[in-house]
Amino acid sequence: MPRDEPARDEELMVAYRDGNLGAFEALYRRHKGGLYRYLLRQCRDNAVAEELFQDVWLNLIRSRGSYVVSSRFTTYLYRVAHNRLIDHYRRQAPAALVSYDEGEGAQELLAPRESEPNVSYEARAQLVRVLEVLETLPAAQREAFVLQQEAGMSVEEIAEATDVSRETAKSRLRYAMNKLRAGLAEWL
Amino acid sequence: MALNDRDARDVLPDGADARIASLYKESSRETPPAHLDRRIAVAARAGAPRDLERRLPWWTGWRLPLAAAAIGVVSASLIALMLHEDPERLASVPPPGAPSTIAEEPGDARAPNVPADAQISATPEARGEDAPARKNRAEPRRGLSERRSEPPPSDQQRRADAQQIPSAEKTTRAETEPPPAHTSAPAAPVAQPSREVQEQALEPRSTVAAAPIPAPAPEPVPAAKPAPREMRTAPPSANMARPAPPTKPSAKMARPPSPAPAPETSAPPPDSQAAVDISRHLAELEKAAPAAWLERVHLLRREGRSREAVSLLAEFRKRYPFEAVPPDLQ
């Protein structure tokens, strides 16, 4: 691979599969934030998000020997995370699954980040409002939006990662954007 | 953003959605805690050596079984090759658990019916035999195995044997009706013969030594009871382990050398005294030249000991099948 061009995720994963630990570190640095936020947005609990985050990476480490490049690494990683989330929902309460598929989701809001003094009050209010509106979305729509924003996935990749059809993924994404647009209309 | 054009039209139709995305990016900056980073890094390092081991070639796990199988195949091939090429050599080697002494040989006449004291006294030391006598007993065994590989006797020799048979029968049938030769020797303990006869029965079972041994059994013995001759002339395990070569039928292998049957099957069973004399002659003539044998036969004839002379001549023919016999002795 050229030196000035960053290695693709798939190449890094293959290198790690072959024993290159540095490749894993690069891969982890690339994806740890997006994956963590994805889990945090979905489960809305820091402790649970940390546990799921660790499980996803450990699962990746354990199963790296069988890794083959069949799609983008991001799709592979978030599919593992999605499955782990579904397991978590099933263990917690069956109602959570209903909420994931068609419910409105919890209305609990994340606390505003008041620890950032350089951010103005209005700006902080905007950021808090974005997360508030996002929290109001159904889990499936929220997931589609977060996957698009955090992992940069296309509709097809979202559909593959969440194991739904392309039309379903596209519909979820459209609903999510419409609700966000409505909720943030004063700042748009 | 990895959306294609159509998705972009559907999902992000205007700048409002871009603004939403920008706001989300600004608001969403959480990162996993440092302790999680360390834990995952440790797990990744710990998993690396195991994965490297797991990625060894697939056949590395089969190295030991494959090596064992290869050793087995090579060993079996070597044994089969040896059996095919040189079965005689293998047949002459006794199996590890086979008895090494004559007294322990299977099918020995002493086996079940001879009392223990007779077995003890049957040892050469107890019988007072000297070393040459013991050597004489072992010599026919070696001579038999050597003769097995010799070419069959000529027609002249066969005719000579055939002429010898009727004369021997004439001299012996007048006294007792001899049982078949291959059952005579083992039948001795069944009929509970005298101690002297038991000692005779303990003599080595070979085509050479069997001829002068008397067959004192007065009643016929079932053929299945005594050990067959082929079991005595060749070790049983050797017979079983040796495949029949195509050039040597098994019947021929089990049969004694060609000149042996005639004198053995129809040899006159002399009385025990004659047998002792024959043994003595054999011991004395063990290392003698063929001419000395013929001279001894002449001497016996002159002394009127015709049965001993016939037996000794038969023994001479077995030992020296290619030596010419003077016409007066024939």
Concise synopsis of the structure shown:
The complex is a heterodimer of chains A (188) and B (330). Helix content of chain A is 70%, strand content 0%.
Attribute tags:
heterodimer, A: 188 residues, mainly alpha, globular, B: 330 residues, 19 helices, 61% helix, rod-shaped, disordered N terminus
Structural class of chain B: mainly alpha
Largest sheet descriptor of chain A: none
Oligomer description: heterodimer
Q: How big a fraction of the residues of chain A is strand?
A: under 5%
Q: Give a count of the beta strands of chain A, DSSP E runs of length 2 or more.
A: 0
The outline of chain A comes out as globular
Whole-number average pLDDT of chain A?
82
Unreliable segments of 5+ consecutive residues of chain A: 103-115
Shape of chain B: rod-shaped
Descriptive account of the structure:
The complex is a heterodimer of chains A (188) and B (330). Helices cover 70% and strands 0% of the residues of chain A. With 188 residues, chain A is mainly alpha-helical. The radius of gyration of chain A is 18 Å and the shape is globular. Chain A starts with 8 loop residues before the first helix and ends in a 5-residue tail after the last helix. Chain B is mostly helical. In chain B, 61% of the residues lie in helices and 0% in strands. The N and C termini of chain B lie far apart (122 Å). The relative contact order of chain B is 0.10. Chains A and B meet through helix 2, helix 3, helix 6, helix 7 and helix 9 of A and helix 1, helix 2 and helix 3 of B.
Note the topology.
The complex is a heterodimer of chains A (188) and B (330).
Chain A: H1 9-17, H2 21-43, H3 46-62, H4 73-92, H5 94-101, H6 121-136, H7 139-151, H8 155-162, H9 166-183
Chain B: H1 5-11, H2 15-27, H3 34-54, H4 63-85, H5 87-92, H6 116-121, H7 124-127, H8 131-148, H9 155-173, H10 181-190, H11 195-201, H12 207-210, H13 229-233, H14 236-241, H15 250-254, H16 261-266, H17 272-284, H18 290-302, H19 306-319
